[in-house]
Amino acid sequence: QVQLVESGGGLVQAGGSLRLSCAASGGVFDINTMGWYRQAPGKQRELVATVTSGGSTNYADSVKGRFTISRDNAKNAAYLQMDSLKPEDTAVYYCQIITLRLLHFWGQGTQVTVSS
Fold it and tell me: Which side of the chain, N or C, has fewer Cβ within a 10 Å radius?
């Protein structure tokens, strides 16, 4: 059974930084894309950033230049370094993986709160 476990969320002041981690386990060996999404209260879940197994990255315009996604293929892990955080970055952040067989898996989410 595939499981994604996120960690690293918390409360930070505007301008601060946080680093989120996502670890996949449960016998998944063919992860293609790993990504981070977020959902703020009353809003739809939105893409934050993705990274492929080859290292290609994609970012939402709202986080370009502030957030950096990375991954460790050997550990089936993905990371999101978030700098220059803004109150509008407050949301629950979810990790997602997509396998080569196009199976999608989600983590349980981690809360990020940025105070002004």
Answer: N
Express each pLDDT in 12-61 by its tens digit.
999 999 999 999 999 888 899 999 999 999 999 999 999 999 999 999 99
pLDDT tens readout for residues 96-107: 999 999 999 999
Place of tokens 């934050």: 48
If you ran DSSP here, which 8-state letter would residue 84 be given?
S
96 φ, ψ (degrees, to nearest 5): -135, 145
- Report the 3 state secondary structure along 4-71: EEEECCEEEECCCCEEEEEEEECCCCCEEEEEEEEECCCCCCEEEEEEECCCCEEECCCCCCCEEEEE
> What tokens appear for 77 in the block?
């892990």
